[in-house]
Amino acid sequence: MSTLDSLKAELLAAVQGAADAAALDAARVAALGKKGRLTELMKGLGSLDGEARKNQGQALNQIRQALEAALEARKSELDAAALDRRLATERIDVTLPARPDGRGRIHPLSQCAEEVTAIFGEMGFTVVDGPEIESDFNNFTALNMPLHHPSRDMQDSFYFEGKTPGTVAEEALVMLRTHTSNAQVRTMLKQKPPIRIVNTGRVFRRDYDATHAPMFHQIEGLVVDEKTHMGHLKGCLLEFCRAYFEVDDVSLQFRPSYFPFTEPSAEVDIGYSAKGGEMRFGGTEKWLEILGCGMVHPNVLRICGIDPERYQGFAFGMGLERITMLKYGIPDLRLMFESDVRWLRHYGFMPLDVPSLVGGLGQ
């Protein structure tokens, strides 16, 4: 038994003296491994007679239990010491300013709004804004839309509760604007020509699928003076598309269309080719509609207090989501509003990359 006591003391001392996890595991293997000292003694129990085997087995089990407890305790001590050392070396001063790790990104829609504003700003347009909650008069009537026009229906427009068409005066009938043209009306009501404005903002309609959303963004432009004609409109839009899509040989076609607030009216298609699944602007292989435009209807000028016999102008409007998707290859409109950080990290822009015609637009 004295030999076993000495062995126990020796094995426990090796465990307590282990300086790290590797040394502790070596002490465990030396004692309890397949060829460990304690394992070899337990293998020899079969050669002893009944009473001696019993006493020897009990003594060896006590040593094994004490050794396992010592191993677990020493492991906990080493783990705690390692954690303390790690905390000491990886300590963070929370009073320091945030590191510039570049994780923040500008949303593609915000970038697009800055890009088109920069382009039209270079053309001499002034940026204006209009309210998102608008009267039926500024949203529809002033734009030469008759009372029976389908866009006034409840299934297309968001009217505020208790305010339905035909129940109150147009000035008191409030709604979420269906287009940014309300800013053009407000500008013409308070400002005399010449007028050259552009505005962007959110608009609201009852629609939702891969290419439509109940809330989306538009940009609209308006020019009113004594000499503006359709040629100026075409030239303005051609130069915009060249600058925005960064393609010198961009192809546009103007198709006759109908809008209540313009006459004549046109829809504009941009030419592109699809090679290898990639859309490339330029050429006339395929056409895609990107905006609507036309000469301002005389009735709109008259309602806003501008003499249509003296002044004329043009207007255009396009969806920011559509031209953003076209330029940057975004396949689904709904992805823009899902707040997915991974998506924003892929399609987003660095905060300090402010677009300009001199420095370059978004890449």
In brief:
The chain is α+β, with helices and mostly antiparallel strands and about 375 residues long.
Topology:
Blueprint: H1 2-16, H2 21-32, H3 37-43, H4 50-89, H5 108-122, E1 126-127, E2 133-135, H6 136-139, E3 174-176, H7 181-190, E4 195-204, E5 215-225, H8 230-245, E6 252-259, E7 262-275, E8 278-281, E9 286-296, H9 298-303, E10 312-319, H10 320-328, H11 341-347
List key phrases describing it.
20% strand; two-stranded antiparallel ribbon; 363 residues
Structure description:
There is one protein chain. Helices cover 39% and strands 20% of the residues. It has helices at residues 2-16, 21-32, 37-43, 50-89, 108-122, 136-139, 181-190, 230-245, 298-303, 320-328, 341-347; strands at residues 126-127, 133-135, 174-176, 195-204, 215-225, 252-259, 262-275, 278-281, 286-296, 312-319. The protein has 363 residues and is an alpha+beta fold. Helix 1 packs parallel to helix 4 and helix 5 (108-122) packs across helix 10. It starts with a helix and ends in a 16-residue tail after the last helix. The strands form two sheets. Strands 1, 4, 5, 6, 7, 8, 9 and 10 form an eight-stranded mixed sheet that branches. Strands 2-3 form a two-stranded antiparallel sheet.
